[in-house]
Amino acid sequence: MKKTFALLLAAIMMLALVACGGGDKPADSAPSDAQTEQPADSAPADVPEAPAEGGTIGVCIYQFTDAFMTTYRNALQEILEGKGYTVTVVDGANDQAKQNEQINTFITQGVDALIINPVMTSAADQIISTVKDAGIPTVLINREPTPEQMAVYDKLVYVGCDARQSGTMQGELILDTPNGGDINGDGKISYIMVQGDPENVDAQYRTEYSVKALTDAGKEVEQLNLTRGDWMRERGQEIVANDLAQFGDQVEVVFCNNDDMAIGALQSIQAAGRKVNEDIYLVGVDALDAALNEVSNGNMTGTVLNDAVGQATAAVEEMEKLLGGATYASGEQSVYVDYVKVTPENVGDFMK
């Protein structure tokens, strides 16, 4: 009887322990929601997931036939694809309405970012409004809007060069010649200006500051003619041929807003029987391979390196900052890459 009672008492005590939760939880029991543990590789709810590698990038170029922008877009595409991005580059064909459609198409396709070389600087307001409404991180290149235009969107940055610097360097190239640009010794520098697109701030600044460098140095200047050449070699050739026919030996300096027009100008200079660096000076901007060859051969006085690869690299760097969540305050949305003066003495450093 005592044995039976002892066994019964032991059973009762075991039941009491289980009821009070004093025993271990069975291995196959499911935890409550409050006790559920997150897998070791899952992030807390308030930590965003890391962005996937690569992405889709739309690149809009104002015109594929532009020699400088060809170098630029090729560098952009190579850098982006090397980083694993899927890249589509489109030609605006110098038509702003067409480029607007291309931008809208990229947005509809859901690209992660845009890099845009505007056809017209005056279209900046519309472009910026479009990308802002879509919330697309955007880098503008080569043609700079005003700070006020860019300030309306904090996921927008401009990458380029300060065109005032390039114009100043063109003027310095002339000042550095043995006679300071005054070939005929009459006390003034008589020049013609072959301008790009006058609506483009680069053309405006190169035109102004190339001459300003001369006047700031105390030189008297005389503008014989200024004509729009739209960055085109054929126009450079045509304009300079007409000006040499009209002004003849009065022309001491030919300023060209870019190298392509300068190469065209050189053709007309040579056809007129003139000799660069002897009875006329010729300067451009961009340091295209063709221009570097002519500087090396003594057929151009000099040019100014517009660093396409450096700008493309900076554009991609800024794009990646935007993709990473960076925003830009007003007045801090322009990133500049320095120009470099190219002379007969250092041209070999830039030739391939």
Folded structure, characterized:
By secondary structure, the protein is α/β, with parallel strands linked by helices. It has 2 domains: 137 residues, 3-Layer(aba) Sandwich (Rossmann fold), CATH 3.40.50; 142 residues, Response regulator (Rossmann fold, 3-Layer(aba) Sandwich). 41% of the residues lie in helices and 17% in strands. It contains 11 helices and 12 strands. The strands form 3 sheets. Strands 2-1-3-4-5-11 form a 6-stranded parallel sheet, sandwiched between helices. Strands 7-6-8-9 form a 4-stranded parallel sheet, with helices on both faces. Helix 2 packs across helix 11 and helix 3 packs parallel to helix 4. It starts with a helix and ends in a 10-residue tail after the last strand.
Strand-helix topology:
Elements: H1 2-19, E1 55-61, H2 67-82, E2 85-91, H3 96-109, E3 113-116, H4 124-134, E4 138-141, H5 147-150, E5 156-160, H6 163-175, E6 188-195, H7 201-216, E7 220-228, H8 233-247, E8 253-256, H9 259-271, E9 281-283, H10 289-296, E10 303-305, H11 308-323, E11 334-336, E12 340-342
Parallel strand pairs: 1-2, 1-3, 3-4, 4-5, 5-11, 6-7, 6-8, 8-9
Antiparallel strand pairs: 10-12
Helix pairs in contact: 2-11, 3-4, 6-7, 8-9
Keywords for this entry:
41% helix, 4-stranded parallel beta sheet, 12 strands, 6-stranded parallel beta sheet, 352 residues, Rossmann fold
Computed structural class? alpha/beta
Q: List segments where confidence is low: pLDDT < 50 over at least 5 consecutive residues.
A: 1-52
Within the CATH hierarchy, at the fold level, what is the topology of the largest domain? Rossmann fold
**Which shape, going by the Cα principal axes?**
elongated
Top CATH class of the largest domain: Alpha Beta
Record the strand order, biggest sheet: 2-1-3-4-5-11
E-strand count: 12
The largest sheet, given as strand count, sense and whether it forms a barrel, is: 6 strands, parallel
Q: What is the helix/strand order? A: HEHEHEHEHEHEHEHEHEHEHEE
CATH architecture type of the largest domain: 3-Layer(aba) Sandwich
Number of domains: 2
Distance between the termini: 109 Å
- What fraction, in percent, of the residue positions are helical? 40-55%
Q: Whole-number average pLDDT?
A: 87
In CATH terms, the superfamily of the largest domain is Response regulator
- Rg over alpha carbons: 33 Å
Instruction: Determine the number of helices (DSSP H or I, runs of at least 4 residues).
Output: 11
How much of the sequence lies in strands comes to 15-25%
